Amino acid sequence: MIDYWKPEAEQGVLGAIMKLALEGDDGGVEDIVGQLSSGDFYHPDNAALFDAIVDCRAQGIPVDAVTLGSIQRDLPSGERVMVYAVTLTRDVPSTANAMTYARHVKDWSVLRQVINIGQQAAAQAVEGLPASSIIEAAHSTMADLRDLQGAGKAGYKRMADVIPVVLNTMDDTLNDRAPPKLSTGLVDLDKLIGHLRQKSMVVIAGRPGSGKTMLALQICQHVAVRGRGIALVVSLEMGEEELTVRAIASQGGIDLRRMEEVKCLDDDEWTRIGAASSQIKESDLFLIDTPGLTVAAIRAEARRLQRNHGLDVLMVDYVGLVASDSKAPNRAEAVGKISTALKNLAKELSVPVLVLAQLNRNPASRPDKKPRSSDLRDSGQIEQDADLVLLVHHDPESEAGQQGVTELILDKGRQAPTGSCLVQRQGQYARFVNFAGDRMPSNEEVEMGRTFASKFKGKRS
């Protein structure tokens, strides 16, 4: 790798940290240390010294050459930590430019990674890998640089500065200038959760076959087709053709089994298929079915879509199949990091992210068989990260379950009280409809019942 680095910046920032510590400027030390990591330093000795500084602070020990030498005796080069620390502290001219040194170290760290990405792409091209695979790998890695480039930009602000934003939003709502609220398309579910909120992570969980994928896909379809919004479905389980067939069946009210028997379809069914296909073609409903995607890759695709077309809702099916790009010691910790990354992605994109999750077998042992948030499989971090936890409960052994009655349980809601609502499962059409008591609603009644569609007026910017 080409030696693109700035030794004077790395040594300067380390010397400045130690001089600020000697001067008792703990705030100045915190400002610098909070922006950097040992990975930002090119020279191993500088990276090791920075780690020793962080260790000192974590243990509440004052930072100076002697304490650093007690934390770590030698540097990777063999030089004594205390000797090197004394030299850097003595040679730094002033602490006034400490933040500039830190910015240079960060910039050169990013530059080295950009160069490394290009070198890796060149090596993969020599190996004969497909161009599409090389581009995707490079694109995903570049997405991770967002965190490096954005470091140091976060900070506190007075709540008073946020009040005008809140009041303006309320005024827009009062005067019908606010963008329409995102609806699920199911009346009772909208009443239960309020609406799909920006920056929220909505976990939709259930046992296999409960209908969680059907529900989430239907919500995305409603936003894109009925609401004229923009939805992205990331499916790590189903292929794009299966997802599209389900969307056509749901939109047109065609039996899924009949769609597999093409030669047996009658004229009315072909008409419905044509109408549903036209509606989907005119919508902004996007799909990704690439298996084994990491959160970084999902982020890169979502940001690209948002930049090119916009984005109103993102669906990830499901969290247990998202590939981990960390060296977590176990699966629970890996899934926990993935969950937190998806929560951060919702805030970054400022859209609701529907995260599908599996449940363990605990509900089967309960008398009512109803699931709880604590039944989420793989990691308890999923429940902690979620703004809403919606559990799909369908008991096929009960009389109501045999009639397709499904309970949607809101077991956690940051801005909505817990509760539940009933919906009618129409599995043959791959959809849920508003619950209408003891009778099964007809297709015409289903379409008439989708009253929230009228709230969407044009695409959101």
Labels describing this entry:
DNAb Helicase, Chain A, disordered C terminus, Rossmann fold, single chain, 461 residues, alpha/beta, 18 helices, 48% helix, 2 domains
Q: What distance lies between the first and last C-alpha atoms, to the nearest angstrom?
A: 43 Å
Overall number of strands: 9
In CATH, what is the homologous superfamily of the largest domain? Answer: P-loop containing nucleotide triphosphate hydrolases
Helix content: 40-55%
How many individual helices?
A: 18
- Uncertain ranges: 150-154, 439-461
Task: Estimate nothing, just give the exact number of structural domains.
Answer: 2
**Overall average pLDDT:** 81
CATH topology type of the largest domain: Rossmann fold
Question: Strands across the major sheet, in which order?
Answer: 3-2-4-5-1-6-7-8-9
Radius of gyration equals 27 Å
**What's the overall geometry?**
elongated
Give the CATH level 1 class of the largest domain.
Alpha Beta
What does this structure look like?
The chain has two domains: 7-150, DNAb Helicase, Chain A, CATH 1.10.860.10; 181-455, P-loop containing nucleotide triphosphate hydrolases (Rossmann fold, 3-Layer(aba) Sandwich). Helix content is 48%, strand content 12%. It has 18 helices and nine strands. A hairpin with a 4-residue loop joins strand 8 (419-426) and strand 9 (431-434). Helix 6 (98-126) packs antiparallel against helix 7 (131-150) and helix 11 (240-252) packs across helix 13 (267-281). It is elongated.
